[in-house]
Amino acid sequence: MKKKKFLVFEDLSTSGQWLYLYARSKEDIERRFPEFYLFDVPPKRFDAAKAQIIENNPDIFIFDIDNLHGLLKDYVENRQKDNYIYQNPDKKRPFVDEI
User: Fold this and answer.
1) Is 98 inside any structural domain?
2) Is residue 99 part of a domain?
3) What is the pLDDT of residues 7-36, one digit of tens each?
4) By residue range, what is the domain housing residue 18?
5) Strand ranges (E), the chain
């Protein structure tokens, strides 16, 4: 099955980070990254400037879910002890799409 590009948002409490993840399905991402927000349609907060930043920096912001590298790989290796939402997915707050 061919992978598709998905837009996700990692909430860092006081800020956040937009990423593109390539995966076979939304469920693959939701299973591996329950703490991330996943979008079928980009929210208002995600504009062309943010998309351009991601596309201009693929090593930092674009990942294949089966071949993680860089910051996201480090995050995955450390999140079990560091990420409250990963440890408690039922505590994830709704995404607020306000500009």
Assistant:
1) no
2) no
3) 999 887 778 899 999 999 999 999 999 889
4) 4-91
5) 4-11, 16-23, 37-39, 62-64
Which residues are within 8 A (CB) of 83 and not within 5 positions of it... i.e. 6 or more apart?
35
Q: 99 falls in which pLDDT band (50, 70, 90)?
A: low
Q: 3-state DSSP: the chain helix, strand, coil percent, rounded to 5?
A: 40, 25, 35
Q: What is the CA radius of gyration of the chain?
A: 13
Closest by alpha carbon to 77, among 57, 69, 85?
Answer: 69
Closest by CA position to 51, among listed 61, 37, 41, 39: 61
Q: With 90 as the cut, is the pLDDT of residue 76 above it?
A: no
Asked if the structure places residue 41 within a domain, the reply is: yes
Q: Is the pTM of this model over 0.70?
A: yes
CA distance 64 to 4: 10
Q: Classify residue 62: in a domain, yes or no.
A: yes
Question: How many domains does the chain fold into?
Answer: 1
